[in-house]
């Protein structure tokens, strides 16, 4: 059952230097219990897409066009008091830096109980019990004792677990995770990814996982959307996108990952830099960096379907260019 439906979302920042089209026509659906990975380089519009859903885009940015339908309700037109009621209760966000979520001068129990009472009436005993239960869910040992701790008394991985616990307090229908494991070591990252998968399955929660790391979403997400210059250039099941990429940009991201290449072979590098959103090239935004670009790429390509729900926005899709992650 579809929980979230985004249609032609455009989030622009109107600056003195010009209009920055951070999100420029993004569309996708998300079902209950599904994990969607959004992948791309820095500046591709991944995080702004998440902030747009949460209604957290500050001036000079605003949603210029499109709709965000959550459980049938258009969030773009929703008054702020009603959006505030949804935010944290039915839609939660896990930020990249847990200290953006946690107040360094307040104990963890104070912050968690405050988050609970923002959306309901809780007795002291029930609130503490709920906090203990959720901390235990995310793998924090001795949750009763850790509730009395301050954020600086936790390691980076444990602080991120507390941030995840706060997001889970109200058992939200949708969680948006904005690169929450980027700053963690590989072992802690693997533990948190395992806990996330288990919690999503137990609660039938939908999740959007924003990251620049295809290796993470390969083992986590059901579907993957690859963003470049504010647009989704490829989207499909994880198997389709990771093992049979159709867009040259997706193939470049996979080819540059050591874990996806044979030992001793040279990594494939995407030449050049991502363009500034304020100064995008005409036509396909990726053409200045693409080895397959032709004169046709001077016109912006429409999204086309290859097979099933595998979408690609490219004049020259690389069908069969990769087979099980090995470069052709």
Automatic annotation (TrEMBL):
It comes from the Bacteria. It holds the Pfam family oligo_HPY. It is found in: Cell inner membrane. SUPFAM superfamilies: P-loop containing nucleoside triphosphate hydrolases. PROSITE patterns: ABC_TRANSPORTER_1 (PS00211), ABC_TRANSPORTER_2 (PS50893). One of its GO terms (cellular component) is plasma membrane. Keywords: ATP-binding, Cell membrane, Membrane, Nucleotide-binding, Transport. GO terms for biological process: peptide transport; transmembrane transport. InterPro entries: AAA+_ATPase, ABC_Ni/Peptide_Import, ABC_transporter-like_ATP-bd, ABC_transporter-like_CS, Oligopep_ABC_C, P-loop_NTPase. One of its GO terms (molecular function) is ATP binding. It is a peripheral membrane protein. Residues 4-254 form the ABC transporter domain. Transmembrane segments: none annotated. NCBIfam families: oligo_HPY (TIGR01727). PANTHER family: DIPEPTIDE TRANSPORT ATP-BINDING PROTEIN DPPD (PTHR43297:SF2), OLIGOPEPTIDE TRANSPORT ATP-BINDING PROTEIN APPD (PTHR43297). Belongs to the ABC transporter superfamily. This is Oligopeptide transport ATP-binding protein OppD. It comes from Boseongicola aestuarii. The gene is oppD_3.
